[in-house]
Amino acid sequence: MSPTVLIVEDEAGLRETLVRAVHSAGLDAQPAEGIAAARESLRGRLPSCILLDIRLKDGDGLEFLRELQEAHPEVPVIMATAYGDSARTIAAIQGGAFDYLTKPFDLGLLTTTLLRAARAPAPARMRPVEAPSGLIGSSPAMLEVWKAIGRAARTDVPVLITGETGVGKEQVARAIHAHSRRREANFVAVNLSAVPATLLESELFGHEKGAFTGATSQHPGHFEAAGEGTLLLDEIGDLDQSLQTKLLRVLQDGAFRRVGGGAELRSRARVLAATSRPVRPDQPESSLRPDLYYRLAVVVIDVPPLRHRRGDIPLLVQGFLDALEGPRRAVSEAALARLQAHPWPGNVRELRHAIERAAVLSRSEVLDADDFELGPPGPEPEDRGPGDLALRPALARLEREYIQRALERSGGNRAEAARLLGIARPQLYARMKELGLERPPPPSARR
After folding, report:
1. Is 12 exposed, middle or buried (0-12, 13-18, 19+ CB in 10 A)?
2. What is the distance of C-alpha 184 from the center of its chain?
């Protein structure tokens, strides 16, 4: 008997499409138009896995996921939604979802995921937590970050967060903490590159009175301040070699001593690390000890640069505008086009500052292209990772050009443009969204 997929989707047309896709993958389909129908179906033979829409007419998919985890924890659940949402993605993964997919579906990815789920052991149960992450984005690249955060939040293992300056590495660390069992305890972040090397050991581990000139009293360090919470060591690649050895010992057995002290103290904090520098042992520029790298990199989350997720720029712009004080602001289409064309070497931080500066200097409630002092778009920054010759941004530029040509030739008719490109219309919509060729739908239109 073939594995069975319970498809919980309230849009009839999409439900039929999913049934055909499931059958083409050699699986049996069991369609349900909502939560009530799914409950009725589950009273019979249990499916091998469940494809569950997160927003249904007769209920919330996340609430139903909790119910499924209680009643049928052995059945893997794949969550699906028409729009990426960081908090919901993290909550779904942390709540025991096998995976999280966005619409319009990539049918190849969908069937692969269903086959993996149908053959997988039951996912671990964990109560989902609706905590704000401080991150914005719905692109496939950011969806992978949300899922990684959800998985990392389940455990207490060290996590290494990598990415260029300004991509939001600290926000990722805060999201892991906010969704973990330690969320009620302290979150302490220290930028290792901002503390003078002569003071860094004292800042991390503390010092006793009289340990050095100026040490007039006992001072607990960041490890003690974090308590049973989370300690983020930002820019770990800048840590002095002698301190790397001491940090390694803390990670191995939790033991450390204050500067000038003889008593051995114990740390109960979870350690996260972040870096914008090369730190892998196979990278010649790395200054991190290999044994320390492997101790920190139990889980690695790579946060993509903004130029690799231009489709998120409209969402980010709206988020930054909503956070501004004073009268409500908006951006013109010309301004948005200019923002999406900019290479953003400073990433999300640079974009936020650009929005804030334009809002301060402009007297209009609608910010126009001339309100942003960005300079010409210029060339894309080159990716310098091993084996990466900036292929992805080059392919993205070529894909953008072909889609624009197809749209021009079809007079803006997307169905015809998809035919000219030889791809399915949902795939065209997804690529246009990812490449920033269309604005996202308003919140009221999202499902």
Report:
1. exposed
2. 22
Alpha-carbon distance of 59 to 330, in angstroms, equals 33
- What gap in Å lies between CA 249 and CA 243, rounded to an integer? 10
Q: Which amino acid is residue 177, in one-letter code?
A: H
Q: Which fold has domain 4-133?
A: Rossmann fold (3.40.50)
CATH architecture of 155-302: 3-Layer(aba) Sandwich (3.40)
Beta strands in 304-417 (DSSP E): 330-331, 366-367
Q: Cite the residue boundaries of each domain of the chain with CATH code 3.40.50.2300.
A: 4-133
The secondary structure of 100-159 as a DSSP string is EEESSP-HHHHHHHHHHHHTSPPPPP--------S----SHHHHHHHHHHHHHHTS-S-E
Report the sign of the C-alpha dihedral through residues 123, 66, 33, 37, in that order: positive
Q: Does domain 306-381 have CATH number 3.40.50.150?
A: no
pLDDT in tens, 26-41: 889 999 999 999 999 9
Q: Tens digit of pLDDT for each residue in 37-56?
A: 999 999 888 999 999 998 89
Q: Locate tokens 């600290």: which residue?
A: 170
Q: Which CATH topology does 392-447 take?
A: Arc Repressor Mutant, subunit A (1.10.10)
Which residues, 6 or more positions from 13, have their beta carbon under 8 angstroms from its beta carbon?
A: none
Angle between helices 347-361 and 313-323 (to 10 degrees): 50
| CA–CA dist 106, 51 (Å, integer) | 14
CA–CA distance, 208 with 220 (Å, rounded to integer): 8
Is residue 6 within 8 A of residue 41, CB to CB? The reply is yes
User: Residues spanned by CATH 3.40.50.300 within the chain?
Assistant: 155-302
| Segment 377-431, tens digit of pLDDT | 555 555 544 444 445 556 666 777 778 778 878 877 888 888 887 777 777 777 7
Tokens of residue 420, six digits: 């000219």
Average pLDDT over residues 168-175: 93
Taking alpha carbons only, the member of 399, 393, 395 closest to residue 421 is: 399
159-162 and 270-275 beta bridge pairing: parallel
pLDDT digits (tens, 9 = 90+) for 305-332: 999 988 888 889 988 998 888 888 888 8
- Say if CB 428 and CB 418 are below 8 A apart: yes
User: pTM of the predicted model, to two decimals?
Assistant: 0.65
Rounded CA-CA distance 254/77 in Å is 37
Q: Which residue is it, tokens 């496939």?
A: 140
Q: Pinpoint the residues of the chain covered by CATH 1.10.8.60.
A: 306-381
Question: In the chain, where does the domain assigned CATH 1.10.10.60 lie?
Answer: 392-447
Helix, strand, or coil (residue 163): coil
